[in-house]
Design a protein that fits this description.
- The chain is mostly beta strands.
- The chain has a single domain, classed as Maltoporin, Chain A, CATH 2.40.170.20.
- Helices cover about 5% and strands about 55% of the residues.
- The protein is globular, with a radius of gyration of 27 Å.
Length: about 700
């Protein structure tokens, strides 16, 4: 029986047994999904003829926090502001490095967004903005079924095109039981040869919450299928207006990478507390107050990357004196197969991946909202079971040739055991705070630790409320397994790296009513992991630090709106990572209402990065790696847009990268990779909850 099937059967058992076990009190519309529940003691049922359909649409949105042990309030991304920005990357970062096509590998140019979950799959980290994992799943409680549909595409979608689609549906079966699903897809052929990207993710979620028992469940899959073209052979060709993007030569043909992620999480808890009698207007009811809880979480993930290529070392013959140039170098000898393959039997078939099952058990003292001085406390113990695999290195005998078997893998099994806990205050009026810690007591990550804390202090005046936030974190982390062991057709390494130590601190000031936010972040890193100029994993030989200052200020003068974001970053060294010193985003638009029903925005987006040595990209590994020879940036990215909203329907028309209509140079997103030329796009969304 496969591990996936075992997981699904266990989920079904836990879900059904939890519901049966917890039917000790009937639920009611008053039931809380967190710490309390209540049962009506009011008058008997009214005659059905007297009832009226007066259900008002209300929806609560929340998602996992502190691992999967707590929930925090979330929001549905249906805000009209910035509606024209549909890229998942640019929604979260004002600056990013990409391959010039939506859905392809990308990394943020914000240093503090480049870190990735140490439990994640290393070779999929550059798809994290397109993926949806358990921490991204939102749970709902709604009085009416809710559906959100979003769609967008280029106006001229043939022969090359781009489309994207998002679907969300959720509904309550009863006041305690909610379920739903979300689906997203991106299909972008791009304007250049061999750069098609197909990204899809599907997730199912459900929650069951009554007085003494809570259960949250989600399962999903992400799949990214991308052609790799290796970049433009002559990058400066984009400066020639007589050459069409689809006719420019690229390095690769017949090269692709497929990255997959499947996940499942079940989190459930049984709560201990007491019932208290309360009165609301003319109604008397009992409310359950939670004091303690026992919790269990189970997480499963399966991650993989499959890289294929027909020609093991693509080449191009230049006529400018360079002669024949090989992409992987003239002396490169493939480790597994060096002869040219076919579309059905590629020369390179590199498979790598990681499977993980994590169990955690919690003892929780719940933050009591009925007590003035209280805070939440929890302690836990957890265990990881991990299986990693990559192309097989063991040689087998073939007449006349000793080569590893094509397409087969070797594997390694790892375990971790860890303990941890947290204390937190989230319901306070004076301030809110939290502190978290984890320590690994056994396994591959033995002696790793992760400490973090934050404080949020509201400052209330007669006119408005502002917030001061301070946060800090300290980690000591064993480098990812694939930094130490790997074998493929083009690369092999065995390394012994030290633990990476990082200290982060930050502070911010936020005044929503004045549309102002500013902050600073600072990091000190020892034994930093990066990809060196040979595209191999390496560890920094010296400690360095990164400082960041960010500022956001919006102005509103009648119908004129000006939104400004500035990011400044500086590192004490340029050996190991490169980001722009300055990045800005400025949005200027006119907003008004036509005929009392149609809200409109007419304006333009401006993005700009100072010049910097952006990383090169390695298709065989799917990784960005440092270089110090070629700068990009210093180019104004300009998009013109119109946003429209009428009731529950939103619509945008956008003309992207109109700077190429003025200048045909500089619009590189990675050395050797160019962005799309100016083109028109549109998108729309509907919400239904009737």
């Amino acid at each position: 029986m496969s591990i996936q099937l075992k997981f699904l059967l266990l989920v079904a058992f836990c879900f059904s047994s939890g519901i049966i076990y917890s039917q000790n009190r009937s639920s009611s519309p008053r039931s809380s999904s967190q710490n309390s529940g209540q049962e009506k003691f009011g008058p008997g049922k009214k005659n059905s003829k007297e009832k009226k359909d007066t259900v008002v649409f209300k929806m609560k949105v929340y998602q996992f926090d502190d691992g999967y042990s707590r929930l925090k309030s979330g929001r549905l991304d249906t805000i009209f502001a910035d509606y024209q920005t549909y890229s998942p990357v640019l929604k979260k970062s004002i600056t990013a490095q990409s391959l010039g096509n939506l859905g392809a590998s990308v990394q943020s140019n914000d240093y503090f967004q480049r870190s990735y979950d140490s439990d994640a799959f290393l070779f999929s980290k550059n798809y994290k903005y397109y993926a949806k994992g358990p921490a991204d799943i939102r749970f709902y409680n709604t009085t009416k079924p809710f559906t959100l549909l979003e769609y967008g595409q280029w106006f001229s979608n043939k022969p090359k095109g781009e489309t994207w689609l998002n679907i969300l549906h959720t509904q309550n079966i009863n006041p305690s039981f909610n379920w739903g699903f979300s689906y997203s897809s991106i299909t972008s052929q791009g304007k250049y040869l061999n750069q098609e990207a197909k990204d899809n993710n599907l997730s199912l979620f459900a929650s069951y919450n009554i007085e003494r028992y809570d259960l949250w469940f989600t399962i999903g899959k992400n799949k990214f299928t991308n052609q790799e073209n290796g970049g433009l052979v002559f990058p400066t060709d984009i400066e020639n207006p007589d050459l069409k993007p689809e006719n420019l030569p690229v390095w690769f043909d017949g090269v692709s990478a497929e990255t997959k992620n499947s996940f499942g999480v079940i989190a459930h808890q049984y709560k201990f507390g007491k019932w208290i009698k309360q009165q609301d207007s003319a109604e008397v009811f009992q409310k359950f107050i939670t004091r303690f809880a026992l919790m269990h979480t189970l997480e499963f993930s399966d991650n993989s990357r499959f890289f294929q290529e027909v020609e093991p070392n693509p080449s191009f013959e230049f006529t400018d004196g360079r002669g024949m140039v090989y992409y992987y170098g003239a002396g490169n000898i493939p480790n597994i197969k060096g002869t040219t393959g076919t579309a059905s039997l590629p020369s390179t078939q590199d498979k790598s991946g990681i499977k993980r099952v994590t169990n955690m058990f919690y003892l929780k003292a719940v933050e009591a909202t009925d007590r003035k001085y209280t805070f939440g406390k929890q302690a836990y113990i957890g265990n990881d079971l991990i299986n990693v695999y990559y192309p097989r290195e063991q040689l087998i005998y073939t007449p006349g040739l000793m080569r590893p078997p094509l397409g087969l893998t070797q594997s390694d099994k790892l375990t971790n055991t860890f303990v941890g806990g947290s204390i937190f205050r989230t319901e306070g009026k004076f301030w809110n705070w939290s502190a978290n810690g984890r320590y690994y007591i056994q396994g591959y990550r033995f002696a790793d630790f992760d400490l973090s804390g934050q404080i949020e202090k509201p400052i209330r005046t007669s006119r408005d409320t502002s917030f001061i936030k301070i946060n800090a974190g300290m980690t000591n982390t064993t480098p990812d397994y694939f930094y130490t062991q790997f074998y493929s057709n083009h690369y092999k390494w065995t390394n012994n790296f030290n633990k990476t130590y990082e200290l982060k601190i930050g502070a911010s000031y936020d005044n929503p009513s004045r549309r102002f936010k500013a902050g600073v972040k600072y990091s000190i890193v020892t034994n930093y992991m990066y990809w060196d100029e040979a595209s191999l994993p390496a560890q920094a030989s010296s400690e360095f630090s990164v400082a960041q200052v960010f500022l956001k200020k919006d102005f509103k003068l009648g119908v004129l709106n000006i939104q400004n974001s500035v990011l400044y970053q500086k590192s004490t060294t340029d050996k190991y990572m490169h980001v722009p010193d300055f990045s800005t985003r400025n949005t200027i638009f006119l907003q008004g209402v036509y005929a009392k029903v149609l809200t409109f925005q007419l304006g333009a987006d401006f993005r700009y990065d100072t010049g910097y040595y952006a990383d090169y990209y390695n298709p065989a590994l799917g990784m960005f790696y440092v270089q110090r020879t070629e700068k990009i940036g210093d180019y104004p990215w300009i998009d013109a847009f119109i946003n429209l909203k009428i009731k529950r329907t939103c619509f945008y028309v956008k003309y992207s990268n109109i700077g190429t209509m003025i200048s045909r140079s500089g619009y590189y997103t990675t050395p050797g990779y160019a962005a799309q030329v100016a083109l028109a796009q549109f998108g729309l969304s509907w919400t239904f909850y009737d």
